[in-house]
Amino acid sequence: MEEAGEATTLSAREGGKGPSGQRLGNYILLEELGGGGMATIYKGHHAFLDRPVAIKELKSRFRRDSELQDRFQREARTAANLPHRNIVQVYDFWRDREHRYLVMELVEGLDAAVMLRRVGALPPYVALALVGQVCGGLAFAHARGIIHRDLKPSNLLITREGVAKVGDFGIAHLMDTPGLTQPGQTLGTLAYMSPEQIRGERLTPASDVFSLGIVLYELMTGQRPFAEDDAESVTAKIIADRPTPPCRAKRGIPRAAQRIVLKCLRKRPDQRFRGCAALERAIGRVVGGKPADWEAFLRRYLELLPAEGEASPGHGRSLRIPGHFGRRLRRLGLGVGLMGAAAYGGLALTGATASLGPTLKWAQTLLPSLPGWSDPSPRGPEQGPRAPRPRTTRPAGRGAPLEPRR
């Protein structure tokens, strides 16, 4: 089993040492930002278009590995065909002798892994707003037959404007087509794999839903649902064990958010959300608002983060999407109205409404949907009982006209 993929952190949050001023075609390298096991990321600048970019270079020890070179090139081709606001855009790819370069959008902000290290766990609504945005980009990729296969916090990037983006499509898989994975080989990050991905079975969008469920669990609780030191025990727990409910792992998580996470983490793909579009809709019902509101919400949260160091444990917990309390009051009012209507109907059926005239009149001031009740009588409301409908009978002769029965 191979654990592939990398923490492609395209964030310009931390400067590093690099070949400042070096020229690569139309690009000028400014500084090294970081990278993962397979590539190094530099901050660069396009000399003619005058825009900042992120330049990803395949590390020298992999330059003779044809399989990794194919993966590197496939990442460029895959992401370049996914123009979406919530996906890191690819601008260019080229070869220079043994070197391979991938030029991408520079996301200036933070990734979710850095946020977790600084705050321990995100407020539930912040985590939902972040994952909800990512669902939009992944649903766009799924509609084009592409499964990400390596979703994890370090691959979820948040700009300073609060826009969440998913990056690193290096091991993405095209549905219903053979990939670069060899028999018996599993690609991805073990702690975030779905059961079917571990077993090497056919993947569907529900596989990415499972991985997003693990990410959402970790963002809200600060810990993974299937966490062990031994790689074999991690895979065994993902395949066989039920996760601890998030509400038990950390207090203050809404039940509705917990239901979303637990549905994402069901073992059978057909029991999860069918895809990220369905997951996005479920998050929207809990958080409220639209993706633009989620962006503004994340931007406010980032603005409250201290410039350096760790934030307080309760940081940002009082933040809500605009209109959140109004929606809760409307739902409460609807519930009270339905209960009142049911109670009124029950009283009318039992004939106990006459003695409750003053009470119902008071209730009418709270529930305007109730009918008027100015002069109750033993018959009920002032308009009296409804006149019975005339019933019709058919004479014995076939075809005879209907006559009303008196």
CATH architecture of the domain at 109-307: Orthogonal Bundle
Radius of gyration: 30 Å
Shape call = elongated
CATH topology of the domain at 109-307: Transferase(Phosphotransferase), domain 1
Number of strands: 13
Q: What order do the helices and strands follow?
A: EEEEHEEEHHEEEEHHHHHHHHHEE
Separation, N- and C-terminal Cα atoms: 85 Å
Q: Taking all residues together, what is the mean pLDDT?
A: 78
Q: CATH superfamily of the domain at 109-307, please?
A: Transferase(Phosphotransferase) domain 1
* CATH C-level category of the domain at 109-307: Mainly Alpha
Number of helices: 12
The percent range for strand residues is: 15-25%
List segments where confidence is low: pLDDT < 50 over at least 5 consecutive residues.
1-17, 179-185, 373-381
- Give the strand order, joined by hyphens, for the main sheet: 1-2-3-4-6-5
User: What is the helical fraction, as a range of percent?
Assistant: 25-40%
Helix and strand composition category: alpha+beta
Largest sheet: 6 strands, antiparallel
